[in-house]
Amino acid sequence: MIRSAAEFGALVRENRKRLGWTQAQLAERCGTGERFIVDLENGKPSCHLEKSLIAARTVGIDLGDLKSATSPVAPEADDDLGFLPRFS
Fold first, then answer.
1. CB atoms within 10 A of CB 3
2. How confident is the chain (88 residues) per 10-residue block, as mean pLDDT?
């Protein structure tokens, strides 16, 4: 399961590189600027969700893939929200 913007960005980067594309090429295919792709791949938490989903689809990430995209998590830990940041 993707648990952070950094993990999501790393998955986008991995798929982009697998396709042999530069960040500029992905940006062009997504209709975004290269700076957005750089921020997305670096895990910037405030990246625009719609653009992020477009980038993910463009590199072949299916939303159904996100649960198994990282190392397996024990079923009982699936509902644990301890990984979320806490705000005062």
1. 13
2. 88 97 96 96 91 92 64 50 63
